[in-house]
Amino acid sequence: MVNFGEKIKSLRTQRNLTQKQLADLSGVAISAISSYEAGNRYPSYDVLISLARIFHVSTDYLLGLENLKTVDVSGLEDRQINVILQMIDIMKEKNL
User: pTM for this one?
Assistant: First the structure.
């Protein structure tokens, strides 16, 4: 569980969520979110899965086992998904 707290905090702040909002969404106390982010405590399996769903990432990503992030494109039309994929390709090329 390397950098778990940092990942949770980063994902939370990227989505402009407060610790209280994340606590409400995940069904835990605000003190639990604070403890996760500080690295003093780790979530149960159920909470880990809930956090992965909230942030649209895998549990492996949260646990530091993979660096892959996912983007939820459900509800979008194929042409919209293609635009997003093209943008990702362009961004990857610029990072080479």
Answer: 0.70
